[in-house]
Write the C-alpha coordinates for this entry.
Amino acid sequence: MRNTVLLLLLASGLLSAREFRQEFIVADVQHFWKAYDQIGKTPDSSRQYRALQELYLDKATPGLKSLMQVRGYSDQLYIYSIRKFPKFWKSVRKNMTPQKYFPEIEADIAKLKTLYPALKPAPIYFSVGCFRTNGTVHEGKVLIGCETALADSKTFVDELPDWRRPFYKESSPVAGLSLLCTHEYVHTQQKPLVENLLSKCLYEGVAEFVSCFATGKPSNAPAIAFGKANERQVVEKFVADMYLMSNDYNWIWGENQNELKVRDLGYYIGYEICERFYMQSEDKPAAIAQLIELDFTDEAAVERIIDAAQLFPKPVAQLYADYEAKRPTVVSMSPFVNGAKDIPSGLTKITLNFSQPLNGYHTGIDFGPLGAWACPKISSERIWSGDGTSWTFEADLKPNMKYQILISNNFRMADGTRLKPYLIEFQTAD
Protein backbone atom coordinates (compact mmCIF):
# COMPACT_ATOMS: atom_id res chain seq x y z
CA MET A 1 0.00 0.00 0.00
CA ARG A 2 2.82 2.38 0.93
CA ASN A 3 4.52 1.80 -2.43
CA THR A 4 1.24 2.40 -4.23
CA VAL A 5 0.81 5.77 -2.52
CA LEU A 6 4.40 6.72 -3.31
CA LEU A 7 3.93 5.83 -6.97
CA LEU A 8 0.74 7.87 -7.08
CA LEU A 9 2.54 10.86 -5.56
CA LEU A 10 5.41 10.54 -8.03
CA ALA A 11 2.98 10.25 -10.93
CA SER A 12 1.11 13.30 -9.69
CA GLY A 13 4.37 15.25 -9.46
CA LEU A 14 5.41 14.24 -12.97
CA LEU A 15 1.99 15.16 -14.31
CA SER A 16 2.21 18.54 -12.60
CA ALA A 17 5.66 19.16 -14.12
CA ARG A 18 4.38 18.22 -17.57
CA GLU A 19 1.39 20.52 -17.16
CA PHE A 20 3.72 23.40 -16.31
CA ARG A 21 6.14 22.79 -19.15
CA GLN A 22 7.19 26.22 -20.41
CA GLU A 23 5.85 27.34 -23.77
CA PHE A 24 8.15 29.39 -26.02
CA ILE A 25 6.95 30.95 -29.29
CA VAL A 26 9.59 32.23 -31.75
CA ALA A 27 7.72 32.27 -35.07
CA ASP A 28 7.68 36.08 -35.16
CA VAL A 29 11.49 36.24 -35.22
CA GLN A 30 11.66 33.94 -38.23
CA HIS A 31 8.94 35.86 -40.04
CA PHE A 32 10.63 39.19 -39.34
CA TRP A 33 13.89 38.21 -40.99
CA LYS A 34 12.09 36.90 -44.07
CA ALA A 35 10.33 40.25 -44.33
CA TYR A 36 13.57 42.12 -43.64
CA ASP A 37 15.38 40.35 -46.46
CA GLN A 38 12.61 41.11 -48.92
CA ILE A 39 12.48 44.75 -47.86
CA GLY A 40 16.21 45.05 -48.48
CA LYS A 41 15.85 43.81 -52.05
CA THR A 42 13.85 46.78 -53.27
CA PRO A 43 13.98 50.58 -52.88
CA ASP A 44 10.30 50.76 -53.80
CA SER A 45 8.38 51.93 -50.75
CA SER A 46 5.11 50.23 -51.65
CA ARG A 47 6.87 46.89 -52.11
CA GLN A 48 8.64 47.30 -48.79
CA TYR A 49 5.36 47.86 -46.99
CA ARG A 50 3.79 44.91 -48.80
CA ALA A 51 6.65 42.62 -47.79
CA LEU A 52 6.40 43.73 -44.16
CA GLN A 53 2.65 43.21 -44.13
CA GLU A 54 2.52 39.87 -45.90
CA LEU A 55 5.60 38.24 -44.42
CA TYR A 56 5.52 39.60 -40.87
CA LEU A 57 2.42 41.46 -39.73
CA ASP A 58 -0.17 39.22 -41.38
CA LYS A 59 1.52 36.22 -39.75
CA ALA A 60 1.73 37.82 -36.31
CA THR A 61 1.39 35.56 -33.30
CA PRO A 62 -0.85 36.68 -30.42
CA GLY A 63 2.38 37.86 -28.77
CA LEU A 64 3.33 40.21 -31.61
CA LYS A 65 -0.21 41.52 -31.80
CA SER A 66 -0.08 42.31 -28.09
CA LEU A 67 3.38 43.87 -28.38
CA MET A 68 2.21 46.17 -31.17
CA GLN A 69 -0.84 47.13 -29.13
CA VAL A 70 0.90 47.94 -25.85
CA ARG A 71 3.87 49.73 -27.46
CA GLY A 72 2.05 51.49 -30.29
CA TYR A 73 4.03 49.87 -33.13
CA SER A 74 2.89 50.51 -36.70
CA ASP A 75 4.00 49.48 -40.18
CA GLN A 76 5.42 52.99 -40.67
CA LEU A 77 7.55 52.65 -37.56
CA TYR A 78 8.88 49.27 -38.65
CA ILE A 79 9.83 50.50 -42.12
CA TYR A 80 11.46 53.61 -40.64
CA SER A 81 13.50 51.51 -38.18
CA ILE A 82 14.62 49.04 -40.85
CA ARG A 83 15.71 51.81 -43.21
CA LYS A 84 17.29 54.04 -40.56
CA PHE A 85 19.51 51.56 -38.70
CA PRO A 86 21.01 49.09 -41.23
CA LYS A 87 24.25 48.48 -39.29
CA PHE A 88 22.32 47.78 -36.12
CA TRP A 89 20.15 45.13 -37.77
CA LYS A 90 23.12 43.50 -39.45
CA SER A 91 25.04 43.27 -36.18
CA VAL A 92 22.16 42.04 -34.00
CA ARG A 93 20.94 39.39 -36.43
CA LYS A 94 23.51 36.80 -35.34
CA ASN A 95 22.00 36.93 -31.85
CA MET A 96 18.43 36.33 -32.97
CA THR A 97 18.34 32.69 -31.92
CA PRO A 98 16.55 32.75 -28.57
CA GLN A 99 16.16 28.95 -28.61
CA LYS A 100 19.63 28.43 -27.16
CA TYR A 101 18.58 30.29 -24.02
CA PHE A 102 15.45 28.21 -23.41
CA PRO A 103 17.05 25.69 -20.97
CA GLU A 104 18.32 28.50 -18.73
CA ILE A 105 15.02 30.34 -18.86
CA GLU A 106 13.04 27.19 -18.12
CA ALA A 107 15.34 26.36 -15.20
CA ASP A 108 14.91 29.84 -13.73
CA ILE A 109 11.15 29.71 -14.03
CA ALA A 110 11.19 26.31 -12.33
CA LYS A 111 13.06 27.98 -9.45
CA LEU A 112 10.39 30.66 -9.38
CA LYS A 113 7.69 27.98 -9.09
CA THR A 114 9.60 26.36 -6.24
CA LEU A 115 9.64 29.70 -4.43
CA TYR A 116 6.01 30.42 -5.30
CA PRO A 117 4.12 27.13 -5.84
CA ALA A 118 0.94 28.96 -6.95
CA LEU A 119 2.74 30.18 -10.09
CA LYS A 120 0.46 30.03 -13.13
CA PRO A 121 2.01 29.18 -16.51
CA ALA A 122 2.46 31.95 -19.06
CA PRO A 123 3.63 31.65 -22.67
CA ILE A 124 6.79 33.55 -23.60
CA TYR A 125 6.68 35.20 -27.03
CA PHE A 126 9.84 36.34 -28.79
CA SER A 127 9.04 39.04 -31.35
CA VAL A 128 10.83 41.94 -33.02
CA GLY A 129 9.72 45.47 -32.25
CA CYS A 130 10.95 49.02 -32.71
CA PHE A 131 13.08 49.72 -29.62
CA ARG A 132 10.32 50.59 -27.15
CA THR A 133 10.75 47.61 -24.83
CA ASN A 134 12.96 44.65 -24.13
CA GLY A 135 10.21 42.95 -22.18
CA THR A 136 6.64 43.52 -21.05
CA VAL A 137 3.43 41.60 -20.42
CA HIS A 138 -0.11 41.66 -21.74
CA GLU A 139 -3.11 39.52 -20.82
CA GLY A 140 -1.02 36.79 -19.22
CA LYS A 141 1.64 36.66 -21.92
CA VAL A 142 5.34 37.47 -21.57
CA LEU A 143 6.44 39.60 -24.55
CA ILE A 144 10.14 39.87 -25.38
CA GLY A 145 11.37 42.52 -27.82
CA CYS A 146 14.33 40.74 -29.41
CA GLU A 147 15.88 43.82 -31.02
CA THR A 148 16.67 45.04 -27.51
CA ALA A 149 16.71 41.92 -25.33
CA LEU A 150 19.04 39.86 -27.58
CA ALA A 151 21.67 42.52 -28.25
CA ASP A 152 25.18 42.17 -26.86
CA SER A 153 28.28 44.33 -26.42
CA LYS A 154 29.18 43.89 -30.08
CA THR A 155 25.87 45.16 -31.39
CA PHE A 156 26.35 48.37 -33.39
CA VAL A 157 24.27 51.07 -31.73
CA ASP A 158 25.81 54.33 -32.94
CA GLU A 159 23.00 54.80 -35.46
CA LEU A 160 20.38 54.74 -32.71
CA PRO A 161 18.98 57.89 -31.01
CA ASP A 162 20.98 59.24 -28.08
CA TRP A 163 18.26 58.32 -25.57
CA ARG A 164 18.33 54.64 -26.58
CA ARG A 165 22.08 53.97 -26.70
CA PRO A 166 22.75 53.82 -22.92
CA PHE A 167 20.48 50.79 -22.59
CA TYR A 168 22.84 48.81 -24.81
CA LYS A 169 26.07 50.30 -23.50
CA GLU A 170 25.42 49.93 -19.77
CA SER A 171 25.35 46.15 -20.08
CA SER A 172 25.04 43.29 -22.53
CA PRO A 173 21.25 42.85 -22.62
CA VAL A 174 21.28 39.24 -23.81
CA ALA A 175 23.30 38.24 -20.74
CA GLY A 176 20.26 39.11 -18.63
CA LEU A 177 17.67 37.48 -20.88
CA SER A 178 16.74 34.68 -18.50
CA LEU A 179 16.37 37.04 -15.55
CA LEU A 180 14.32 39.39 -17.75
CA CYS A 181 11.96 36.55 -18.63
CA THR A 182 11.62 35.62 -14.96
CA HIS A 183 10.96 39.26 -14.03
CA GLU A 184 8.22 39.55 -16.64
CA TYR A 185 6.84 36.19 -15.55
CA VAL A 186 6.27 37.62 -12.08
CA HIS A 187 4.33 40.47 -13.67
CA THR A 188 1.93 37.96 -15.25
CA GLN A 189 1.04 36.81 -11.72
CA GLN A 190 0.48 40.29 -10.28
CA LYS A 191 -2.71 42.30 -9.99
CA PRO A 192 -2.95 45.54 -12.03
CA LEU A 193 -0.98 48.46 -10.66
CA VAL A 194 -2.43 51.81 -9.65
CA GLU A 195 -1.24 54.85 -11.57
CA ASN A 196 0.85 56.59 -8.95
CA LEU A 197 4.61 56.68 -8.59
CA LEU A 198 4.83 54.65 -5.40
CA SER A 199 2.65 51.84 -6.76
CA LYS A 200 4.61 51.72 -10.02
CA CYS A 201 7.88 51.40 -8.10
CA LEU A 202 6.50 48.69 -5.84
CA TYR A 203 5.03 46.81 -8.83
CA GLU A 204 8.43 46.73 -10.53
CA GLY A 205 10.26 46.14 -7.26
CA VAL A 206 8.23 43.02 -6.54
CA ALA A 207 9.09 41.55 -9.95
CA GLU A 208 12.77 42.45 -9.67
CA PHE A 209 13.26 41.25 -6.10
CA VAL A 210 11.32 38.00 -6.50
CA SER A 211 12.98 37.11 -9.80
CA CYS A 212 16.47 37.81 -8.42
CA PHE A 213 15.78 35.98 -5.16
CA ALA A 214 14.27 32.96 -6.92
CA THR A 215 17.11 32.57 -9.42
CA GLY A 216 19.98 33.65 -7.18
CA LYS A 217 21.06 36.13 -9.85
CA PRO A 218 21.93 39.78 -9.14
CA SER A 219 19.85 42.45 -10.81
CA ASN A 220 21.08 43.73 -14.16
CA ALA A 221 19.60 47.16 -13.44
CA PRO A 222 22.35 49.69 -12.54
CA ALA A 223 19.75 51.44 -10.37
CA ILE A 224 19.80 48.66 -7.77
CA ALA A 225 23.53 48.85 -7.08
CA PHE A 226 23.51 52.65 -7.18
CA GLY A 227 20.57 52.84 -4.79
CA LYS A 228 22.17 50.52 -2.26
CA ALA A 229 25.40 52.52 -2.36
CA ASN A 230 23.56 55.88 -2.05
CA GLU A 231 20.51 54.92 -0.04
CA ARG A 232 20.03 58.08 2.01
CA GLN A 233 20.41 60.44 -0.94
CA VAL A 234 18.09 58.39 -3.17
CA VAL A 235 15.40 57.97 -0.50
CA GLU A 236 15.42 61.67 0.41
CA LYS A 237 14.98 62.67 -3.22
CA PHE A 238 12.27 60.07 -3.79
CA VAL A 239 10.27 61.18 -0.76
CA ALA A 240 10.46 64.79 -2.01
CA ASP A 241 9.16 63.70 -5.43
CA MET A 242 6.75 60.98 -4.39
CA TYR A 243 3.48 62.91 -4.74
CA LEU A 244 4.46 65.43 -7.40
CA MET A 245 3.17 63.30 -10.33
CA SER A 246 5.14 65.35 -12.85
CA ASN A 247 8.46 63.68 -11.93
CA ASP A 248 7.63 60.02 -12.65
CA TYR A 249 10.09 59.80 -15.54
CA ASN A 250 12.93 60.67 -13.19
CA TRP A 251 12.19 57.42 -11.38
CA ILE A 252 10.46 54.87 -13.56
CA TRP A 253 10.34 53.93 -17.24
CA GLY A 254 12.21 57.02 -18.40
CA GLU A 255 15.37 59.08 -18.44
CA ASN A 256 16.35 60.61 -15.12
CA GLN A 257 16.89 64.36 -15.39
CA ASN A 258 17.48 65.18 -11.73
CA GLU A 259 20.84 65.40 -10.01
CA LEU A 260 21.04 61.63 -9.39
CA LYS A 261 21.29 60.98 -13.16
CA VAL A 262 20.67 57.21 -12.89
CA ARG A 263 17.55 56.02 -14.70
CA ASP A 264 14.83 53.82 -13.18
CA LEU A 265 15.83 54.40 -9.57
CA GLY A 266 12.22 53.62 -8.73
CA TYR A 267 13.13 49.97 -9.32
CA TYR A 268 15.59 50.29 -6.45
CA ILE A 269 12.95 51.84 -4.18
CA GLY A 270 10.55 48.99 -4.86
CA TYR A 271 13.27 46.33 -4.68
CA GLU A 272 14.59 47.61 -1.35
CA ILE A 273 11.10 47.72 0.16
CA CYS A 274 10.43 44.12 -0.92
CA GLU A 275 13.80 42.85 0.27
CA ARG A 276 13.41 44.46 3.68
CA PHE A 277 9.82 43.26 4.02
CA TYR A 278 10.87 39.70 3.19
CA MET A 279 13.86 39.70 5.54
CA GLN A 280 11.73 40.99 8.43
CA SER A 281 8.92 38.48 7.86
CA GLU A 282 8.82 35.36 10.03
CA ASP A 283 6.83 33.37 7.46
CA LYS A 284 9.02 33.65 4.35
CA PRO A 285 6.77 31.74 1.90
CA ALA A 286 3.79 33.84 3.01
CA ALA A 287 5.83 37.02 2.49
CA ILE A 288 6.60 36.05 -1.11
CA ALA A 289 2.92 35.32 -1.72
CA GLN A 290 1.91 38.65 -0.17
CA LEU A 291 4.30 40.52 -2.46
CA ILE A 292 3.24 38.76 -5.64
CA GLU A 293 -0.48 38.81 -4.85
CA LEU A 294 -0.58 42.38 -3.55
CA ASP A 295 -3.76 44.26 -4.47
CA PHE A 296 -2.55 47.73 -5.38
CA THR A 297 -6.05 49.15 -4.97
CA ASP A 298 -5.93 48.16 -1.28
CA GLU A 299 -4.13 51.19 0.12
CA ALA A 300 -3.95 49.74 3.62
CA ALA A 301 -2.23 46.57 2.37
CA VAL A 302 0.23 48.56 0.28
CA GLU A 303 1.05 50.83 3.20
CA ARG A 304 1.55 47.87 5.56
CA ILE A 305 4.26 46.44 3.33
CA ILE A 306 5.97 49.80 2.77
CA ASP A 307 5.85 50.81 6.42
CA ALA A 308 7.08 47.39 7.58
CA ALA A 309 10.16 47.83 5.37
CA GLN A 310 11.10 51.05 7.22
CA LEU A 311 12.90 52.47 4.22
CA PHE A 312 11.22 55.87 4.45
CA PRO A 313 11.77 58.30 7.33
CA LYS A 314 8.04 58.33 8.21
CA PRO A 315 5.01 56.11 7.61
CA VAL A 316 3.36 56.60 4.22
CA ALA A 317 0.26 58.19 5.76
CA GLN A 318 2.39 60.83 7.49
CA LEU A 319 4.39 61.53 4.32
CA TYR A 320 1.13 62.09 2.47
CA ALA A 321 -0.17 64.35 5.25
CA ASP A 322 3.04 66.38 5.07
CA TYR A 323 2.61 66.77 1.32
CA GLU A 324 -1.03 67.80 1.65
CA ALA A 325 -0.10 70.39 4.28
CA LYS A 326 2.30 72.17 1.92
CA ARG A 327 0.02 72.20 -1.13
CA PRO A 328 -1.04 75.68 -2.28
CA THR A 329 -4.70 76.66 -2.17
CA VAL A 330 -7.05 79.26 -3.62
CA VAL A 331 -7.49 81.73 -0.77
CA SER A 332 -9.85 84.22 -2.40
CA MET A 333 -11.42 85.33 -5.64
CA SER A 334 -12.85 88.53 -7.12
CA PRO A 335 -14.94 90.42 -8.19
CA PHE A 336 -17.32 88.25 -6.14
CA VAL A 337 -16.91 85.59 -3.46
CA ASN A 338 -17.37 81.91 -4.07
CA GLY A 339 -20.99 80.87 -3.62
CA ALA A 340 -22.36 84.33 -4.49
CA LYS A 341 -25.80 84.82 -6.04
CA ASP A 342 -27.30 87.43 -8.34
CA ILE A 343 -24.03 87.95 -10.20
CA PRO A 344 -24.50 90.20 -13.25
CA SER A 345 -24.37 88.43 -16.60
CA GLY A 346 -21.99 89.35 -19.43
CA LEU A 347 -18.23 89.11 -19.94
CA THR A 348 -16.66 88.94 -16.49
CA LYS A 349 -13.01 88.77 -15.47
CA ILE A 350 -12.51 86.44 -12.51
CA THR A 351 -9.29 86.56 -10.51
CA LEU A 352 -8.06 83.78 -8.25
CA ASN A 353 -5.55 84.46 -5.49
CA PHE A 354 -3.25 81.66 -4.31
CA SER A 355 -1.69 80.98 -0.92
CA GLN A 356 1.76 80.58 -2.50
CA PRO A 357 3.37 81.60 -5.80
CA LEU A 358 2.69 79.17 -8.64
CA ASN A 359 4.93 78.56 -11.64
CA GLY A 360 3.01 80.88 -13.97
CA TYR A 361 2.72 78.19 -16.62
CA HIS A 362 0.57 75.17 -15.78
CA THR A 363 -3.18 75.76 -15.58
CA GLY A 364 -6.29 73.61 -15.63
CA ILE A 365 -10.03 74.27 -15.83
CA ASP A 366 -12.58 71.47 -15.81
CA PHE A 367 -16.29 70.84 -15.37
CA GLY A 368 -17.78 70.59 -11.91
CA PRO A 369 -20.16 67.84 -10.72
CA LEU A 370 -23.06 69.39 -12.68
CA GLY A 371 -21.25 68.76 -15.94
CA ALA A 372 -20.54 70.74 -19.10
CA TRP A 373 -23.85 72.60 -19.22
CA ALA A 374 -23.02 74.34 -15.93
CA CYS A 375 -19.62 75.60 -17.08
CA PRO A 376 -19.55 79.03 -18.76
CA LYS A 377 -17.71 79.73 -21.98
CA ILE A 378 -14.20 80.83 -21.04
CA SER A 379 -11.98 82.88 -23.32
CA SER A 380 -8.44 81.89 -24.24
CA GLU A 381 -7.05 85.08 -22.67
CA ARG A 382 -5.71 84.12 -19.24
CA ILE A 383 -3.31 86.34 -17.32
CA TRP A 384 -0.85 85.60 -14.51
CA SER A 385 0.34 88.20 -12.05
CA GLY A 386 4.06 88.90 -12.15
CA ASP A 387 4.70 87.09 -8.87
CA GLY A 388 2.55 84.05 -9.73
CA THR A 389 0.16 84.58 -6.82
CA SER A 390 -2.93 85.35 -8.89
CA TRP A 391 -4.48 84.30 -12.18
CA THR A 392 -7.26 85.97 -14.18
CA PHE A 393 -9.58 84.51 -16.78
CA GLU A 394 -12.66 85.83 -18.57
CA ALA A 395 -16.02 84.04 -18.59
CA ASP A 396 -19.14 84.78 -20.64
CA LEU A 397 -21.95 84.58 -18.09
CA LYS A 398 -25.58 84.09 -19.12
CA PRO A 399 -28.52 85.25 -16.99
CA ASN A 400 -30.34 82.97 -14.54
CA MET A 401 -27.68 80.26 -14.51
CA LYS A 402 -26.06 78.18 -11.79
CA TYR A 403 -22.38 77.87 -12.74
CA GLN A 404 -19.58 75.59 -11.65
CA ILE A 405 -15.90 75.87 -12.63
CA LEU A 406 -13.37 73.38 -11.31
CA ILE A 407 -9.86 74.76 -10.87
CA SER A 408 -7.85 71.56 -11.16
CA ASN A 409 -4.62 70.35 -9.62
CA ASN A 410 -2.78 70.93 -12.89
CA PHE A 411 -1.80 74.31 -11.41
CA ARG A 412 1.47 73.81 -9.57
CA MET A 413 4.40 75.44 -7.81
CA ALA A 414 7.88 75.65 -9.30
CA ASP A 415 8.89 72.39 -7.55
CA GLY A 416 5.86 70.56 -8.96
CA THR A 417 3.69 70.64 -5.83
CA ARG A 418 0.12 70.77 -7.07
CA LEU A 419 -2.71 73.10 -6.15
CA LYS A 420 -5.57 71.64 -4.14
CA PRO A 421 -8.56 71.56 -6.52
CA TYR A 422 -11.02 74.38 -6.00
CA LEU A 423 -14.67 74.32 -7.07
CA ILE A 424 -16.15 77.70 -7.96
CA GLU A 425 -19.96 77.89 -7.68
CA PHE A 426 -22.19 80.91 -8.21
CA GLN A 427 -25.53 82.02 -9.69
CA THR A 428 -26.28 84.82 -12.11
CA ALA A 429 -29.20 87.21 -11.84
CA ASP A 430 -32.31 87.04 -14.05
Summary: The chain has 17 helices and eleven strands.
